[in-house]
Amino acid sequence: MTGGGDGPRPDTSPLAEITPRVIEHLTEKHAAREAALRASRALIQASARSIREVHRGELAEAEARLESAREAADEGFGALSGHPDIEHAGFVHDAEKEYAEARATLALVAGRPLPSPEEVGVGAAAWLNGIAEAVGELRRVILDRLRQGEFEGCEALLEAMDDIYAVLVTIDFPDAMTGGLRRTTDQTRGILERTRGDLTMAIVQRRNTPSVD
């Protein structure tokens, strides 16, 4: 029989060399995560503010805000190079989705073509979810115009909403790949149909209202 506890001690000497490298790597990763989180929060806030400016008709201000915010965000997101696990953790996707929504809303209200994912500078899933959520902002624009008795551009915005929905229903991939797009698409359909009904009713009422000479 062999005695307990008297065997050779395992060689742990490599720890003295390995541990500092591990700590340095985790320190860099933590710093990159914090920088990207700050960039994400700033981009989300700027996107929300730009959408409010669009609703107030301040399109130039909204454009300038988005340009400035994107430049700052790119600097923050650049820290994630070499850390794909953090880059795909979710908060970058959320920020880019909000940015895509703001870009889409601004472009369509301004009468410009819908920007592509490459033009916006976001991933496919963020772009799809962003343009889907832009449909809700376009509904608000239409309703605001109808309340003010302004019909110009409303049908064009409704057509843009319809075009977006027509694309969304063709996307048939798992939610893990699309960021939960299926649920957003279902919501988009409801928004589109309600808006179509509101606009149709407003147009019919205008046609049936006698003009005052």
Care to describe what's here?
Helix 2 (59-77) runs antiparallel to helix 4 (91-109) and helix 7 runs antiparallel to helix 9 (181-208). The longest helix has 41 residues, at 15-55. The chain has 213 residues and is mainly alpha-helical. It has helices at 15-55, 59-77, 84-87, 91-109, 117-120, 124-147, 154-168, 175-178, 181-208. The chain has one domain (24-207): Up-down Bundle (Methane Monooxygenase Hydroxylase, Chain G, domain 1).
The helix-strand sequence is HHHHHHHHH
**Overall number of structural domains:** 1
| Number of extended strands | 0
Which CATH class applies here? Answer: Mainly Alpha
How many strands, what sense, and barrel or not for the largest sheet? none
Q: What share of residues are in beta strands?
A: under 5%
Summed up, the helix count is 9
- Broad shape: elongated
Mean pLDDT: 89
What is the CA-CA span between the terminal residues? 115 Å
Secondary-structure content class: mainly alpha
Helix share bin:
over 70%
Please state the CA-atom Rg, rounded to the nearest Å: 25 Å
Q: Any idea of the CATH topology?
A: Methane Monooxygenase Hydroxylase, Chain G, domain 1
Give me the secondary-structure topology.
Layout: H1 15-55, H2 59-77, H3 84-87, H4 91-109, H5 117-120, H6 124-147, H7 154-168, H8 175-178, H9 181-208
